[in-house]
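Data card: per-record layout.
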Amino acid sequence: PPPPPPLFLNDTAPTEINSLSLHDALPIYGDALGGPAGHALAPGDEVGHVHRAIQDQISHYVKKLEQAVAERTDQLRETEIRLEIAVTAAGVGIWDWDLVAQTARCSHTCLALYGYAPTTEPIRLEQWQRCLHPEDAQRVLQEAEQAIKSQSRYQSDYRIDWSNDAIRWISNRG
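The structure for this 174-residue chain is written out next.
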């Protein structure tokens, strides 16, 4: 059977429920309080029964919340997998720059574009700067700084030096 309506133990409950005495609550919550509605409990038993009823209700709602969190977590994992498939298929790298820590979290595709092995560790700004072609580095850094200061979109096309002395063009947006 479904649980009885919640017992309101604070001032957010409607006045008529807030002002219910234990005697008034017994006919409503009799089953949850340990006996059929309308049946009297032995003196002193009321508090224990109310306590157990509240614990049962809390357990019921905690289980419902845990189930909802598990379902949302599974949905999030599925979405992440789909995004990674799309990003990999498109050959697009995704990065998230932490301006305070001066690090970036990068997708595996993004790391591959720069010649890095996949990792979950953030990339430091200095690592990215070392990849920039010397003829492009100052301009790229100024464009990034300007975008941050003006809180505008960042767009830059530049060359990077790959570890095998090859040069690769990158089109970066943020």
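Known properties of this structure: Helices lie at 15-18, 22-29, 45-90, 108-113, 125-131, 137-150. The longest strand covers residues 155-161.

See the next section for split statistics.
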